[in-house]
Amino acid sequence: MKLEDWQLNQNTPSVRQKILGWLNLRPEEGARTLLMFLFYTTTSVGVLWFEVSVAALFLGEYGAEGLPWIYLASSGIGAALGLLYSWMQKFLPLRHVIFLIAVLMAVPVVLLRIGMHPALLGGYAIFMLRLWVEGIYVLNELTTTITANQLFNIREIKRTFPFISSGILMADVLSGFSLPVLRSLIGLPNILILASGMMLVGAFTLLHIGRTYHQFFPDSPRRRMQEKQPDFTARRLRGPLLRYVVLIVSFFVMIQVLLLLIDFQYLSQLEKNLNVQVEEIADFLALFSGVLGLFELLTQWFISSRMIERLGVFFISMLPPVLVVTISSFSLLVLGQPAVLFWGIILLKFVDELLRYTLVASTSPVLFQPIPDTMRSRVQSMVRGVAEPIAIGVTGGSMLLVLKVFRTQAGSANSVLFQQFQDGAFTALILLAALVWLLTVWWLRSRYLELLVLSAERGQLSLSDVDLRSIKRAVVDALDRPGTEADKQSCIELLTHIDPRNVGDVLSPLLARLTPRLQRQSLEAMLDHPSLDYLDRVRSLIQNPLQPEVLAVALRYIWLTETNPDIPELRHYLQAQQDPVVRGTAASLMLRRGNSHERAEATATLRRMLTHTQERERVMGCRALGEAVYMQALRLYIKPLLQDESLRVRRALLEAIASTHLEEYYPSLIRGLRYQSTREAAMQALTRLENDAIPLVLSIAEDIHQPDIVRNSAWKVMGRIGTLEALNALVSHLVTSWGASRRSILRILLKLPHDAGIEAVGDRLGRRGVETLMNQELMLIGQMYAALLDFLPERLEGREADLLRRALRYAQSDAQDRLFLLMRFLYPSSAIQAASFNLLSGSPDNMARGLEILDNTVDLPSKRALLSILDRRPDYDKLQSLSDLVPYTPMAASDRLRYLLDLRHFLSEWALACCFHLARRQLWGVKVDQAIACLRHPAGFVRESVLSYLQVASPRTLRILLPQLGQDPNPLVAAQIRHLLFIMEQTTLPPQPSQPALPSLPDA
After folding, report:
1. Which residue from 245, 546, 728, 968 puts its CA 20 to 30 A from 915's CA?
2. Residues with Cβ < 8 Å from 722, sequence gap 6 or more?
3. Rounded CA gap, 235 and 232, in Å?
4. Is-contact 624 588, C-beta < 8 A?
């Protein structure tokens, strides 16, 4: 049975759900989407009736050459209306503003219709009506996009706005085929009154939306919202936001420029080629709009949203300019053939309108989503309400200039030469504008993702953005002036991080003025890159009384830096009155650089320290061993010191073993990993051994019987070693490991400095290898969803079933974590981490932002499945999206549990134990090899669950297996075995079992 059939049997969808599915909508979005569709449709019917009627009246009164004056004048009214929109939001709640603006669209239509009377405005009213068409479009688009962005989040808009924006397409069909009939009944001028009425219907629909869904709209005006908004958000996003808004302006400006150029060419060709009455031109425009609307409606309802989800916003945004470039290039080639040019311009108008009101209209609101919520409405108002009208005015003025130039050159406005030049010039401008639009979309893509990530994670400044000299000067000033010691320590750490080789330039002149703790920190930083240039300053420092820890580091710096050190001078520091840290340092330096007699003196000193009764003496003696090159006769003290009662002594000795490469004591380093008290010291010691430690560390990491924390520590050591051999070993085990081990290896590789781990995975596995690992995780998630569907609560009740379902959810969550880790090997970590952070927040808006980041970052073959499982969708929908990787066949619950046990190597220990507890509760049979294998599982509670299962399900098998189990290392399991043996000794099995033996695990 296929998943669809099973789902239909389980929960037959209603007719409403089927319709929403056809429209690519979800049930919770249906009502909001329908109301927005009704608003946009009714308003657009009125707008289109108004536009077509006015266009015909204008051509009859002024001709096509009067259009540039409209474009020029409309910039003023468009900018004024955009500013009005923005101004009203400062004083009124947003839902009130959008209703008042919708009413404002309709009222001037009635007033100007009255003004058409010859006794009033006459022909001037027609000019003003054509001008108001531009204003209405500005207000209508602003109202629709702002309302949609309030009602839907970024992911919902991708599904809902294609249907909402199809309202204007439905209006194209309704108005296009109805206008000729209405014109014949009531006359063309009276269509204006009817158009105003339809716009008012849309306004009151918008009022209903604002009241019904008031929770989606802010209750306060924008001015109050801005006062409550912290300033740091705007400051932090100012740079990227400014660059993004500039590109947004360019995007919408080029759309408007193309609209005007194509519209002018279209109406000019109609005027020249259709020698008919004004009413018949209106009928042609209406029928063209109706036919175009049918194509647009089909595209928007059944193609647009699916294309956007599959191909992406920016691929779709590039499609219209590419087609416009193609058609306009063809039109340039046929300038000498008026009939062909006419139909070419008609085709260009058709394609432009088709794509503009389907694909472009669907993607445009998405481009505003990366902008912070508190600024989005204002930016939309400025871009769509100010920038676009200004662009219209500039374009109109440019068109007037072009017409004037060609009239002057041609000498006659009606000449054939002028017409050809005019057609060629405007077609070339269309081609140029389309190319600029295409380039803008290309730049917009990278900025879109950048701003999404920044708005999600609030990125931090990088050290590469600051001037190194300024940092050094600031550190010097901070260390000189009064301040807390903690702040000065941070300054030294910062300087050490950004310029470790030249840190002495800044710190050596300040040594005498620093506190003892800062002196020690500075000397240790300088000791990483010692230089003779600072030797005199350090020598002068030890002439003054110093704390022992500072003196020890200074001695080490001097006697390790000098080319020919005066070792006898160190004898003074071997005296018993010196602090142990100073004596140990002096002894280690003499062992490293002294002659045989001096080494003997140092050895005697260290022998007394290693056998001293005081802990501090022994600790400093062990540290001195690590700094020495020759152990000589001191080796015999190592074994007793490894069993020293002092933890500090044992830790110091582990470091000494690694520093001096005492191979016979390497097993002690491995044992140190097993104890929490010595684990970090053992990790540091093994890291010092580098490649020599790899076989030892792998022996622990590969041992499944070791605790997870010990194995994880071993993997961390491999990462800290960081050599090519260590990285190759990590990558090899990444492919073969699973569960917690794979997650640990992934995190270790990602944390390596300079992306060394990412480069190693790329070199060893390549992109295809990482995709294979991700597909494995997706397949596991699919198996978890399949099990959850077969273990539905209504089909399987009880505490054990609940525990198993919870364990499967945890396993699915762990697999998703590993997916995010794997994605960071292919894509920018900042984008993936920002997406993960937003998805984990649980907020619908944040989750939508996280999915949008992934949608614009990931380009995997399984991208749709990945986004589906991360979205808030039912389990059967998620499993359906994984059908290519995990074909699903419903199973009986007992069969599904046995199938899960076959996948035991991929399940967590707790999920595996829950399987046996459920089988025990339900008296389900499991395979013999499954039970035997899990009895050998390293997790004690898994072995315990198998024994509990066998006690109930197959006592005869348990009687045979118990003597073979021996002494279990887990005390609880060992106690359980003893208890079961006692019970077996007290009872005798009857000849025939009281219940039939389980088929998969028969009694012996």
Report:
1. 968
2. 752, 756
3. 5
4. yes
- Reduce the secondary structure of 644-688 to three states and give it as a string: CCCHHHHHHHHHHHHHHCCHHHHHHHHHHHCCHHHHHHHHHHHHH
DSSP sequence for 104-140: HHHHHHHHHHHHTSTTTTTHHHHHHHHHHHHHHHHHH
User: How many Cβ atoms sit within 10 Å of the Cβ of residue 766?
Assistant: 11
Structure tokens at 37: 């569709």
Task: Calculate the CA dihedral of residues 961, 965, 966, 967 and round it to 10 degrees.
Answer: -140
CA atoms within 13 A on the CB side of 180: 13
Model confidence over 247-298: pLDDT tens digits?
888 888 888 888 888 888 887 777 777 665 667 777 777 888 888 888 877 8
pLDDT digits (tens, 9 = 90+) for 336-368: 677 777 888 888 888 888 888 778 877 777 777
Q: In this predicted structure, what is the pLDDT of residue 1000?
A: 44
d(CA 806, CA 811): 9
Q: Identify which of 129-133, 150-154, 792-796 has the greatest average pLDDT.
A: 792-796
Residues near 362 by beta carbon (within 8 Å), at least 6 away in sequence: 158, 161, 162, 165, 300, 304, 305, 308, 316
Three-state secondary structure of 723-745:
CHHHHHHHHHHHHHCCCHHHHHH
Q: Give the side-chain half-sphere CA count within 13 A for 724.
A: 2
| Cα 675–chain centre separation | 39
Task: Reduce the DSSP state of residue 100 to 3 states and report it.
Answer: helix
CA dist 601 and 622 (Å) reads: 17
CA 312 to chain centre: 16
Cα separation, 674 vs 660, whole angstroms: 22
| Token output for 11 | 């929960």
DSSP state of 997: P
Tens digits of residue pLDDT in 9-54:
444 456 777 777 777 677 777 788 889 989 999 998 888 888 888 8
In angstroms, the CA 468 to CA 459 distance is: 21
Whole-number Å distance between alpha carbons of 269 and 289: 16
Residue 205 CA to residue 207 CA, distance in Å, equals 5
Over range 127-146, report the average pLDDT.
Answer: 81
Spatial contact of 719 and 733, defined as CB atoms under 8 Å apart: no
537-572 in b/e form (b: 16+ CB < 10 A) is bbeebeeeebebbbbbbbbbbbbebeeebebeebee
| Numbers of helices and strands, H then E, in the chain | 50, 0
Residues 6+ away with beta carbon under 8 Å from 549: 516, 520, 581
Question: Residue 954's closest CA among 989, 918, 978?
Answer: 989
Question: What Å distances lie between residue 724 and 74, 731, 767, 941, CA to CA?
Answer: 67, 11, 20, 38
The alpha helices in 11-66, defined as continuous H runs, are: 15-22, 30-61
- 230 contacts: CB under 8 Å, gap ≥ 6: none
Q: How confident is the model at residue 78 (pLDDT cuts 50, 70, 90)?
A: low
d(CA 113, CA 121): 10
982/970 Cα distance (integer angstroms): 18
Contact 924, 895 (CB under 8 A): no
**What is the Cα–Cα distance from 413 to 794, expressed in whole angstroms?**
82
Angstrom distance (rounded) from CA 579 to CA 548: 6
CA pair distance 794, 788, nearest whole angstrom: 12
Please name the amino acid found at residue 359.
L
Give 55's Cβ-side CA count (13 Å radius). 23
Distances from the Cα of 769 to the Cαs of 160, 561, 627, 751, in angstroms? 37, 48, 44, 20
3-state helix vs strand vs coil in the chain, percent to 5: 80, 0, 20
Query: Whole-angstrom Cα distance, residue 786 to residue 876?
Result: 8
